[in-house]
Amino acid sequence: MKYSLILIMILSLWSCKKDTDKTDMEALEEVPVTVVEDSIPQNRLDPDIEKQQSIELKQQQLIEKEDEKEELEELIISKTYLKDEDEYIIDFTYPLLNESINASYANFNEYINDYYVDITGTEASILEDKDLICDTVRTNRFREKRFIDYKVYNVNDQLVSVLFYKENFYSGTLHPTYSFDCMNFDLNRSVFMNYEDFFIDGSEEELRKILNEILSSKVESGEMYYDCWEISEDDFFEYKDNFVLDDRSVEYYFDDCVICPSYTGSYSIVIPLEELLPVLKRYDVNPLVF
Which class is domain 194-283? Predict the structure, then answer.
């Protein structure tokens, strides 16, 4: 009798649990399923990734920018220097002038070889910087890279205008930075020309105003110039000789983060020659006179 009662109780409990499970399942089936959509689009990129892509695009546009190397192939001799070491890479491409055309072009070549393309100085600077880093793991993990290339333009067969762009890749950085040097060489007189050879003495503030007006118009137009800012007086005086020329315009170049952050804008500002009439010098050796 005792065992019969225990068996009846077990069967009763099992039947109860089965009914409960069935009821719970029916209740779940009656509850509507609500799909919660992600309020953030899945194809939206992280802001840091977007900035990185913008930096790469900005640098690529510079590298692919057209110049007049092909038209000037008889005048320009392109030289290269590559040194690939465990701790660093030096990769320089630079122009020399063909001295068989004019022996006085040696003035240009000596300056480029002896001063501007300073291989020994560049190597010493890299090694000195590494000596200052005590973290040998970090030092060995990243290799410094120094890269120089150039664009070249010609104005009325009287002047050759060279843009040097330097790519500096430092240890631990995500992307290289760019800096610029511009040189204008009078082919007739075999001399380098600077701001005062093209523009009226004391016209710096007026030219800075012209540059800032062009920059402001680009910011207001909604182009890729957001977060850019006006050129300060100090910055302009530092970069006032940093321009290249062609028959239609003057193009000023500024290093990374001087007028725009690295992820937006451009490295340069183009000024049509017509807008420079108030500040242009009027004399025969100025190739911009028209």
Answer: alpha beta
User: Of the candidates 54, 56, 133, which has an alpha carbon nearest to the alpha carbon of residue 88?
Assistant: 133
Q: Which CATH fold would you assign to the domain 47-193?
A: Heat Shock Protein 90 (3.30.565)
How far apart are alpha carbons 50 and 23 in whole angstroms?
53
Give pLDDT tens digits along the chain (290 positions): 444 444 445 445 445 444 544 444 444 445 454 444 444 444 555 767 888 888 888 889 999 999 999 999 999 999 999 999 888 899 999 999 999 999 999 999 999 998 898 888 888 887 776 655 444 444 445 678 889 999 999 988 899 999 999 987 765 556 778 999 999 999 999 999 999 999 999 999 999 999 999 999 999 987 778 889 999 999 999 999 999 998 899 999 999 999 999 888 999 999 999 999 999 998 777 888 75
DSSP letter (8 states) at residue 247: S
CA distances from residue 188 to 23, 77, 105, 286, 290 in whole angstroms, order as listed: 100, 18, 10, 11, 18
Strand arrangement of the beta sheet that strand 243-245 belongs to: 243-245, 249-253, 268-272
Under a CB-based contact definition with an 8 Å cutoff, are residues 236 and 196 in contact?
no
The answer to whether 144 and 89 have CB atoms below 8 angstroms apart is yes
The residue length of the chain stands at: 290
Rg (CA), the chain: 33
The residues of the chain that CATH labels 3.90.640.20 are: 194-283
DSSP at 285: T
